[in-house]
## 1
Amino acid sequence: MMRHTRRRAPLYALLLCLVASLPAFLPAATVFDGLDMGNDDKLLFRAGTGGDGSLLQSALFITRLGSGQIGQLTAFPERIELIENGRLLQVRNPFGAVRIPVTGGLPRSVGGFPSFVSGAVVQAGRTENMAASPDGKWILYVEPTTSAFGRLVLVDSATGYRVPVADNVERPGKIFPASWSPDSRVFVYARDRRLFFRAVDSANAPIIDERYRMVGEGAIPSIRWGVAGDFYYLRGSTVYRVRGSDLFARSLYSDFLEIGTVAGKLPFEFDPNFDSFWNAPDGSAILLAKGGRNIFYFPL
């Protein structure tokens, strides 16, 4: 609990100080309450979202008046991931993204990702999607440029260093338009109904043209990663297995040579808009859900 001063400032003065310490842009659906002033000029307050038909939720924040810096103390787990080999929980909600050690501790903001404490606009009711690498070092998110499209950005979660990856990427709905390899070294992203790959160790290197990094036609549901760093890619009625070691070499010949090795054939065409699949850990078979109605087992 914070100790109160005996001399209480008028409520309107506290509100003015709070507004001066908060981000410059706030949506109309964001409300503040629970102001609690301490002896050390620290102000504890609660911010809430909702009232526009979205999920009602709130978070507790603390700020030192006049500093402009805000700390987040609680986070509603609207979306949650386990990263860094199970050592960290990543929690997302309309206030941004934070990471919490599974052993306990206060939330820590993810550098480079839009959040309330960094001064970004909190979009009423909307939780921006992202894809964190399994080791937790990198995140991918789509920076909105229009209501439907944005720029795919790679961010170093420790430093906030940002690397633009691709423009005109569809803003994510239920499925994020990129997928990480298990070793966090490579990711595949979707743009204009085609799949491309990129290695994170090339973040500071000259960008190779996308045509040399193309996997083929499809969307993110068209691929599934294996435990060894390879992935399975479904296009039409063909199942390809793409090894990580072959990915960069064979992409140079993508104009006239299929990327990957044919691992199997399906009796029908795979539609990434409605179908999904899962590969066995040993790569011996896949399960395929056709249109969300029927499940098939196919040995490879």
## 2
Amino acid sequence: MATAITADQVKNLRDKTGAGMMECKAALSEANGDIDEAVTILRKRGVAQAAKRSGRSTGEGLVATRVSSDGRTGVIAEINCESDFVARTDDFQKLVSDVTTALLAVDANADPNSVIAAGSPLALQITATITKTGENITVSRVGRIQADGGVLGTYLHLGGKIGVLLRVTGVPAGKEQSEELTTLVKELAMQIAAASPQYATRDAIPADVIEREKSVYRAQMENSGKPAQVIDKIVEGKLGSFYGQSVLPEQPSIRDPKVTVTQMLDAASKTLGGKLAVPEFLRFKVGESQ
């Protein structure tokens, strides 16, 4: 029995790919309603420009970040509402602050989502704020990173529409508060905010994602008439471009496209005397989770 395709699914796929309505509907039907699979189908057909997984922002609100006073815990949260007007009110701003405070108070081994569980003090506060503002409000997602010997950094862009939390390791003792490191961490956070990498390292990319990319590139070359070995080289080249877009260290710097993030880290490592790396980061953009 064929899966019924809804208008909302078609709209969602159009927003993600820019493809036409009928093309989106046909791809969704072929994928039995699976949005991600439909994106891949459209890409193979050359209809979709790229797999824009996050889609368009559909909500208002703010992203908030905070690092504990001892520098050992960093948290990030996306809090959504219906209008930018409410996002700027004192009541909403207080809720945002209270969310990050509650996240920092959660035990390091506990699920940070527990702070917004039904019946929790924060959940009750959200309900009260909804009543007062007259708009629906949700805490769409939360995240946490432990320093674990590294240094944490945060950055908010566009007044809180994009937030970044990251961890930098390999910092020599005594250099944690240095001006050089502070500048580097800010530059890295701004890089993540602007360039939106998906992975901290190549090793973090799931094997099925790499295989999917390869299958897309091969499908694009299917009727090219090129020899198999030539197609293999083209696929590897396209995969390298994928890494350059998706993996933080391999991205070109937003300051100087001729310099990669890896080269930035290497230069800072020589200055500070360590081997700096960014093993993990979180990037939230208002509306992406909806």
## 3
Amino acid sequence: MVSLDELNETIIACQRCPRLIAYCRRVAQEKRRAYRDQPYWGKPVPGLGDPRARVLMVGLAPGAHGANRTGRMFTGDGSGDFLIPALYRAGFASQPASTHLDDGLVYTGLYLAAAAHCAPPDNKPTRQEIANCRPYLVEHLRLLREVVVILALGRIGFEAVLAALAESGLTLPAPRPAFGHGAEHRLGRYVLLASYHPSRQNTQTGRLTAEMLDAVLVRVNELAGR
């Protein structure tokens, strides 16, 4: 039986999606001008967080110049700048900002995983690439034995969770659970909650506000008994 650390080592070394590996490496070589003096991670980004978490958060994929640069999910990009303060307000994050891998951020009661662990071009992994990454989400579900609440960020994260639960042996109800901000579905031992993804496209247009995300996280805490 593998541990979370061993699973994440496997993720970092993964070569299942040649297109994504090539893209991550190319971005790390070319860099964005603002970060030209910084080293880039440039490979699959592992999961992270509290191994005894009661809440699992599943995002889409690393940002090309965010997690693909820093090596930690939601660190160093606009999505993280919006999400981490909310997690801090909800009591999951030890500090309200996350800028680099060794900045001291610690998660309590929360673990982070993703539908895809490599940065995809245009933030759009293919269906096959998401399927290639699914075994890692299945294994995260198996290893995180105390998780009772899953928070899916965005429709792709939501669908990835449903697929991973089905692959884990859970029979999904009919009709199939539908994505919507604030939607809540009880699935076996879990409650699956959905939120719009904290992408700049959503936060800058007001589709997702801080108040909307805070409300979802309040419900997450209620369901997790925190």
